[in-house]
Design brief:
By secondary structure, the protein is α/β, with parallel strands linked by helices. It has a single domain, classed as Flavin prenyltransferase-like (Rossmann fold, 3-Layer(aba) Sandwich), CATH 3.40.50. Helices cover about 40% and strands about 20% of the residues. It has seven helices and six strands. It is globular.
């Protein structure tokens, strides 16, 4: 049975393929996915995936739906759309993921800046005691990055760096991507068969 809705943020960190693979799974498990795109995310998606995500949210949603599967609705939101449901604790989904998450966005969330809709949506999930998963893709992490992650972790935010494991013996880049998407689905309590679990052998 599908859950109602969830928020997915895309930022300017490298790792657009992770974000698209995650959206693909969320559309199959949620009635609606609110997607918040930063301006930098559009550049990264064009560079890494060759996807042109228009500033026109309707056109951007059409591209994301075309590139993914599932019957879940995709609602793309601009970073200044303060009248959207995700901006208010009375209407926002109780679950949110930022994938990939830039260290700049992580920093802003850690201090409650709320300078754009993505940061505000994360702030809402935190204050409403919801589930927030941040997936940074950076290396190495500076002390500032680590301090921000610790601060967020201490208040219940899940920090899940985009660092796939190799014990499942990946045979392709997609296997590595699936590893991280599978870990997210585990935290969302969604059943899947994207990867082999430790100690259980091959399921494929």
């Amino acid at each position: 049975m599908k859950s109602k809705n969830i928020t997915l943020g895309f930022t300017g960190a490298s790792g657009a393929a992770y974000g698209m693979a995650l959206l693909n799974q969320l559309r199959q498990n949620y009635d609606e996915v609110f997607v918040i795109l930063s301006d930098a995310a559009r550049v990264v998606f064009a560079t890494e995936l060759g996807l042109a995500l228009s500033e026109n949210v309707t056109k951007a949603a059409e591209v994301l739906k075309r590139e993914t599967k599932g019957d879940g609705k995709v609602t793309v939101l601009g970073t200044q759309n303060w009248m959207s449901p995700v901006a208010s604790g009375s209407a926002a989904p109780k679950q949110m993921i930022v994938c990939p998450c830039s260290t700049g966005t992580l920093s802003s969330i850690a201090v409650g800046a709320s300078d754009n809709l993505l940061e505000r949506a994360a702030d809402v999930v935190i204050k409403e005691r919801g589930q927030l998963i941040l997936m940074p893709r950076e290396t190495p992490f500076s002390t500032i990055h680590l301090q921000n992650m610790t601060r967020l972790s201490e208040i219940g935010v899940t920090i899940m760096p985009l660092a796939p494991g190799f014990y499942q013996k990946p045979e392709s880049i997609q296997d590595l991507i699936n590893f991280m998407v599978a870990r997210v689905l585990d935290h969302l309590m969604i059943e899947h068969q994207l990867m082999d679990r430790w100690g259980y052998g091959k399921s494929k």
